Amino acid sequence: MVIRIMMVDIPRVRELVLDNCKSNDGKIEGLTAEFVNLEFLSLINVGLISVSNLPKLPKLKKLELSDNRICGCLDMLAEKLPNLTHLNLSGNKLKDISTLEPLKKLECLESLDLFNCEVTNLNDYRESVFKLLPQLTYLDGYDREDGEAPDSDAEVDGVDEEDDDEEGEDEEDEEDSEEEEFDDEEDEDEDEDVEGEDEDEVSGEEEEFGHDGVDEDEDDDDDDEDEEEEESGKGEKRKRETDDEGEDD
């Protein structure tokens, strides 16, 4: 059965697990060099007999190839996976130390696992491998002093945590932006409310002024009435004086 990979955005994929999917003649259809950012690839128990058909993956750091049928021909790994740091070949058909010699070209290789390979039954196996591959820090999970290696899965999880932190920061920035926009809108509303209050005050003053005007008109009317009363009083006085003169005559 041919393994087919259908991905929407292949360049963004950083981890790919194809365990227990049987390949066809060691080929995995769809696994191409388009996975330019792939850092973790797991091909456990897929029936591989060689690594020659793997694509060039310059950013790949961890490769899981356990429980396959690989017996040698590891030369292509250094050419296609130059930044590989962790390689798991447990449960394959590796018998001699010499089959590991091509791994010397993997200058970044820190951890190598060969559990359940026949090569581990050789005398001085660990000493020989560390001597052949001086760049190694851990072999089968332990260093030269038999110190246990940290959990390599945690390193992969660490990459994800960094991504989550970055996404969290982006979300916080977006939330801050939204809060700033909301604050700006509130400030604008407050300004509009203040302007509205000022207009109401002006209108109130105009109304008060209007009332004053009415009061002034009423005062004018009162003055006119007083003048008319004075004129009327003067007329009556003149009439009395005229009458008095006629009686004297």
The counted number of beta strands is: 6
Q: Describe the main β-sheet briefly.
A: 6 strands, parallel
Separate helix tally: 3
- Measured distance between first and last alpha carbons: 156 Å
Radius of gyration: 49 Å
Overall mean pLDDT stands at 77
Helix content: 40-55%
Commentary on this structure:
A 6-stranded parallel β-sheet has the order 1-2-3-4-5-6, covered by helices on one side. Strand 5 (111-113), helix 2 and strand 6 form a beta-alpha-beta unit. With 249 residues, the chain is of the alpha/beta class. It is built from 3 helices and 6 strands; from the N terminus they run βββαββαβα. The longest helix has 97 residues, at 152-248.
Comma- or semicolon-separated keywords:
alpha/beta, 3 helices, six-stranded parallel β-sheet, 249 residues, 45% helix
Précis, in short:
The chain has helices spanning 75-80, 125-132, 152-248, and strands at 15-17, 40-42, 62-64, 86-88, 111-113, 138-139.
List the helices and strands and how they pair.
Blueprint lengths: L14 E3 L22 E3 L19 E3 L10 H6 L5 E3 L22 E3 L11 H8 L5 E2 L12 H97 L1
